[in-house]
Structures are given as C-alpha cells and as structure tokens.
Amino acid sequence: MTLGWSLLAWAGIIWLLPFLYFIQKNQCKPKKNIILGVTLPYEARQDRDVLALLERFRREMKLTCWISLAAVAPSLFIRSFGVFMTVWLTWIAVVCVVFFIPYIRCNKALGRLKEERGWRRKDVPQMVTDLKAAAMEMRWISLWWFLPPFLVSLVPLLFERTLWWLWAIGTATVLLFYLCYRYLYRGRAEVVDENTDRTIALTRIRRYNWGKCWLTAAWATGLLNVGLWLTEAHIWWHMAVVLAYCLAVCAAVIGIEFRVRRVQEQLTQDSGQGYYVDDDDHWIWGMLYYNPNDRRCIVNDRVGINTTFNLARRPAQVFMGLGLALLLACPLAGVWLIGLENAPVELEVTETELAGSHFGGHWSVVLENIRSAELVDELPRLSRVVGTGMNSAYTGTYRCEAWGSFTCCIDPRIGPWLLVTGTDGSVYLFGSSAPGGAEAAFAALG
Predict the structure, then answer these.
(1) Could you count the other beta carbons within 10 Å of the beta carbon of residue 369?
(2) What crossing angle do the helices spanning 81-98 and 16-26 adopt, rounded to 10°?
(3) Is the alpha carbon torsion for 125, 126, 127, 129 positive or negative?
(4) Alpha carbon distance 393, 81 (integer Å)
(5) What is the pLDDT of residues 211-248, one digit of tens each?
(6) CA pair distance 299, 293, nearest whole angstrom
(7) Is 226 in a helix, a strand, or coil?
(8) Which residue from 90, 89, 210 is spatially nearest to 141, judged by alpha carbons?
(9) How does pLDDT run across 358-399, given as a tens digit for each residue?
(10) For residue 171, which of 19, 153, 350, 380 is within the disulfide window of CB 3.0 to 4.6 Å?
(11) Who's near 32: CB < 8 A, 6+ residues apart?
C-alpha cells in the first residue's frame, strides 16, 4: 500500500466532510419556516435563545469536522491494504453517524424551546393540500432525453465483450436512473402557508430540479462506461476516471440541492407571520418521517429535492434497517480484506489437475489439457481485468502484451512463476507463497 494509493482513496471520500458540514450548516437558514428540522414562526428567527442554539450547533459541527479530518492522518502511514481499508471503512461509518449528533442535540433543544414559548400552533388545523397547486399538470421529462446517455453506455459492448457484465451494469444503471426519476418523486404540492402562488412556485422548482439531477447522473454514468473501457489497460487512469465520475456527479447533485434550498429560502423569507403548516409531529429529530396515517412508503423531504421513507410502513423499516446494517458492517469488509491479504497462495499438482488457490478461490487446468509449461523468472507488466490485485496475491483474469488475457493465481513477491498454455490456447500463470513451490510443480508435471 503506497502513499499514492492512500491519498487517492481518501480523495474519493474526503469530500464527505465539507458536504456534511455545509449541508448541516445550511439547515440553520429558515426554509419553509423550518430551522434544523423544527417549524418556527417568523419572530423566532431573531430570538436570542434560538440564535444562541444555532451558534452552539455551528461550533459543534466545526469541532466534529476538524476531529474527523485529524483522524485521517495516521492512516497515511499504514502500508497494509487490509488494515488501511478497515480504517477507511470504519471512518466512513463513524462520520456518517457522528455528524448527526450535533444536529439531533440542537433539534431537540429547539423543540423544547418551541414548547416553552408557545410556538406550537395546535389551535390551527393542518393544511396538507392546496387543491389548485395539486391540480397542476406534472410535466415529466421525456424518455427520449435519457436515450442518448443510454446509447453512449452501450458503446463498450460493441468493441469489448470480455467485461460485458461491467458495461451491462453501467447501462442498467442509466435505465435505473430514469425509473428513479419517474417513480420515486412524490407529487404532493409544496404547501407552506395559504399563499397558493408560493406553493406552485416551490412545487415547480422541486420538480424541475429533481429531473435535472437524474438526467445529469444518467449522462455521467454513460460517459463512465466509455471512460472505463478506454482506460481498461491502465489502472491509474482507470481509478482516475472513477474518481472523476464520483466527484462530477456529487458536485452536480450537491450544487443543484443547494440552489433549490437557496430558492426555497428566498421564496419563504416572509412566511410564518400568519398561518403556516407545522407537521413536526411526524418528523423524528426533524429528519425521519413517521406517520401511520400516511399510506405512502416514500415521501418528499421538507427542504431540498430529496425523498425519504415513511418509517411507519413495514417496507420502509426493512429497507432502512438493511441500509443501517450495511453501514455498520462496513468495517467487517476491512477485516475480510486483512484475511485476504495475509492468506498464502498455494499451488499443487494432483493426479488430474494443476491447481492454484487463495483464500477460498480456486483456479485449475486439467493435466491432459496442458500443451506446454515453462518457468518465468521475471513478470511482465500485468493489467488486472477482474479479480484480486493485492501486493501478496494476483488472482482472477489478467492481461499483458505478451500473453494476452490469462488466468492468474500468483504471489507477485515470490518467483519464479509457472506459465502454462492449454491445448485450446488458454494461458495460466501459477505461483506460490512458499519458496520453490512453482519449481516443484513444474518438476511434477514432468
């Protein structure tokens, strides 16, 4: 594990810190009468106690951000890939949890202050539907706008069939983005108060930018497929393409999200002086929607353009539970990689086959199908197609200029290695973590 790889790995995820910081800080600005997930009247925006709570929240967010950033530094000196990935994945899981602690603390404090000041409008019936706004025709972006990125994603399949499954995943993702755009949006109008024109404007802004996000992601994914195909033989360029894709999509989506929030803030800057909608009772900590009287499983977030789950519905509970379990299980993937990194590459000749194995993986060729075998003292420049590419093990399908595409199971640190050609022209490269393993296998082949 080199310093370059460590920096590249952190470059792909470190943006999470400023994103979480600014998205949380942005919650301090009133949008649709909501501040940090709590609906407050207009006069509360300049209340001394409210401002003090918001200032405390900002300080806690800054401290959390700096501590999370400082935690990255020690990992730059880790040279074990498995240990590094364990730290990296643990950092992601922890950051995704701890960044919400200051938010929850302030949300609860604002909720208590709201009760103490009598800002809860229990005497006013909740208006959840504006009939004029709800009657607006939903103008969907035509499927034809998603067709060009879909066709672009198919280009690698026309020229390279070895990794057809990878290109197919990219193509399926473009199609999935259209389906998400079309079917995940909830059509309820963005009601804030009795001002129908405001409701219509907010609804149109959310709908337009919702489609813009998914169309942008579809184009980026189509181009990603082409980029991965063009850089297939160059691992560093390959990684750079993936990094550029992640940064481009995240930057575009985050930019759209903040623009929508800014417009929502501007359009509702004078709201909250008379009647206003207050549905805080259905939002746990201001961010988790729970409403048994709502039959929908997916609902729109109150600010921005995102959607969320109604945790009162069983499918939403299952999905959120699986997502949380996956997040908390991330460090276990690093532990698995430690085992993968430390497992030896083994090579043996049985009565029927020449077989290499590593950490449960098995690669073999039947003895009677071997046309030739030779020992290789120096490895050419190898390019991984699919499989393991660790300092201690190369397994799976690899490629090089001299041998083309071949099956590989070697420890690249310990040579020589056994190059085998099958009667059908297939090529295999075997090795062993035990010194002399390849020579012993070569001798056994006769």
Answers:
(1) 14
(2) 0
(3) negative
(4) 12
(5) 999 999 999 999 999 999 888 777 778 888 988 998 89
(6) 13
(7) helix
(8) 210
(9) 999 999 999 999 999 999 999 999 988 888 988 899 999 998
(10) 153
(11) 190, 192, 202, 264, 268, 271, 302, 303
